[in-house]
Amino acid sequence: MRWYLTGIVVSGFGSTAMWLVSGIWVKSLTGSDSLAALAAFALWAPVLVGPLLGTLADRVRRRPLLVVLNAATALLLPVLLWVESADRVWLLFAVLVLYGAQGAVHEAAEQALVATTLDEARLGTFNGLRMTANESTKLIAPLVAAGLFARYGGGPVALLDAASFALAAVLFALMPVREERPARPARRNWWRETAGGVRLLRASPVLRPLVATGGFTMLLAGVNGAAIYAVVDGGLGRSPAYAGVLYAVQGAGSVLAGLFAGPLLRRVPEREVAAVGLAVFAVAVGVRALPYGVTALVASAVIGLGMPWVLVAVMTAVQREAPAEAVGRVAATAHTLVFAPNALSIAFGAGLVAVVDVRILLPVLALAGTAWAAGLAVRGRRRDGRPGTGRGDDGPGRGDDGPGRGDDGPWRGDGAGDGRVDGLAVRGGQGAGSMEGGA
Fold first, then answer.
1. Does the model's pTM come out above 0.90?
2. 420 DSSP β-pair partners
3. 220-260: per-residue pLDDT in tens?
4. Which residue, 12, 53, 79, 363, is most buried by CB atoms nearer than 10 A?
5. How far is C-alpha 103 from the chain's CA centre?
C-alpha cells in the first residue's frame, strides 16, 4: 500500500501540473480562447471510449501494465519541448489525447489491481486514502506549475511531469504484489469483451444505482463549476482570481473527505455513503448562492467534502462486486458513465449561467441533488432493509451468506440466475447485505 500511494502522489503531482498548464500554454501561443478550451476536451475525450480502453487491463497483469504506462508517458512528454510556436500546437493536442487515453487505461488497471490483491475489508479505507493522496497534490501542484510556466514556459512543466511518471514507474515496479496471469479465453474479441463489461455493470442491481448517482453528481458538479465565476463576480463582488481561493478550500475539503471515507464505508453500505455525500454536496451548492464571503468559503469546503464520498463509494462498490477477471472493464465503464456527464455539463452550464441567475440556478441544483439522494437512500432501505443484512457488527455481511444474493439472485444477464454474464462468473460469497443493507 505504501509504494502504491506514493506512486499516486508522485504521478498525481505531475498530472495536475500538466492539466493546469495545457490550456494556458495553448492560449499563450495562439491567443484563442476556444483552442484553449479544446485542450481540456482533448484530455477528457478518451474517457468517452473508456470501456474499450479498459479491456486492456483485463488482458494482462495489472502491475506490469502500470509500470509500462508510466514509463511510456515519461518518454512521450519531452516531445512537448518542440511546441514553441502556434504552428506546432497540433503536437500538444496529439500528446494530450494520448495522455488522456493513458489515464483511462491507468485508472482501470489501478482499480483492478487493488480489487484483486487487497483484502476486501480494507477497500474502503484504501480508496479513501487514494482520494486524499490525489487531492493533496492539487493544493501544491497548481502553484508550482503556474510559477514554472510564468518563468520558463511549458517545456519545464512537461519535463517535471515526465520525471514524475518515471518515478511512479519505479515505485509501481517495487510494489510487492503477486499476480496470476489472466486466463486466455478460447476466442478473443475486443468488442465482445468490452460489451461483456458493460453488460456486467448493467446487470448488477448494486452497481446500477450507484454509478447513476455518480454520473448525476458529476452532472451537477459540472454546472456548479461553470457557475463559479458568476458567483465570484456577481455574488461576492470579487475579481475572477478569487475562484482560485475557493478551489483551494474545496481541495482541502476533499483531502479530509478521503480520510473519513474509510471509517464510513466500514460501518455504512456504499449506497448510503453515496446518498449522504450527494446530499451534503447538493446543500453546499445551494448555500453558495448566498452573497457572503464566509458562506462561500464554507460551502466550497463542504462541496469538497461531500462529492468525493460519492466517487469513493462507487469505486469501492465496483471493486467489491465485479468478477476478478472483468474488474478493468467494469471499472472503465463506470468511470466513463460517471465522468462523461461532467465534461458535457460544463458546456451546458456555461449556457445556463448566461440566461439564469445563479441565485436561482444553484438552489435548483441543490433541490435536484437532495431529492436524488433521498430517493437513493429510501430505495436502498426498502430493498435490503431486512434485519441482519448490514455490514460490520450489524449482520453477517459479505461471505457469510454463501454465494447467493438473497432474494434477488446472483448477477443476471438475460434473466439467468446462474451468476454468469456471457461466461464471466461473479465472485462467490457476495451477500446482498454487504452493499445495500440497512446500517
1. no
2. 425
3. 998 998 888 788 888 888 876 687 788 888 888 988 888 88
4. 53
5. 11
Beta bridge partners of 421: 424
The C-alpha atoms of residue 439 and residue 433 are separated, in whole angstroms, by: 10
**Between the CA atoms of 199, 205, 210 and 215, what dihedral angle is there, to the nearest 10 degrees?**
40
Q: 344-359 burial, b if ≥16 CB within 10 A, otherwise e? A: ebbeebbebbeebebe
Supply φ then ψ for residue 425, to 5 degrees. Answer: -80, 140
List alpha helices for 268-410, DSSP H: 270-287, 293-321, 327-355, 358-384
Neighbours of 368 (CB within 10 A): 16
In the numeric block, which cell numbers belong to residue 30? 495562439
Instruction: Please check whether residue 300 is in contact with residue 171, taking contact to mean a CB–CB distance below 8 angstroms.
Output: no
**Torsions phi, psi of 414, nearest 5?**
-100, 50
Is residue 135's pLDDT more than 90? no
Residue 176 is placed in which grid cell?
A: 510487492
CA 151 vs. chain centroid, Å, equals 32
